Predict the 3D structure of the following.
Amino acid sequence: MAGHAFRWAFLGALAVALAACAGGKEPEPVPNIPPTNYKQEIIDAMIKLLPDATNVRGAFVTEPFLSVAPGGRDQRYIVCVRYNGRDANRQYMGSTDRVGTFFGGRLNQLVEAGNEQCAKAAFKPFPELEKLCQAKTCD
């Protein structure tokens, strides 16, 4: 009788331990969810990235499209961004292309584009980036 009680107690403890291990894992994210708020995420990243994020000129962006991510081998949603931003001395730096990579529908990185990464991209005007003032008076 004591052996039965011990066996049931052991099996119960084992079941609880296994359930605790299994329940703690988060499900794997789905990597290729189309980004829905990509323009705002790019603007938020540019505010942190540029020394002077005001008065950006010549801003263009592509729609998100599936492609091999920079430095990777898996397909991800990416966008190309082209802009002419100012440096810390408020001088325009010239046109720059960047590639934004998305994972799970969220911007994962925004890096300088390689020579050919955005060469054939279908850019559209990105006036939201040009109008960015960061609660300052744009001049």
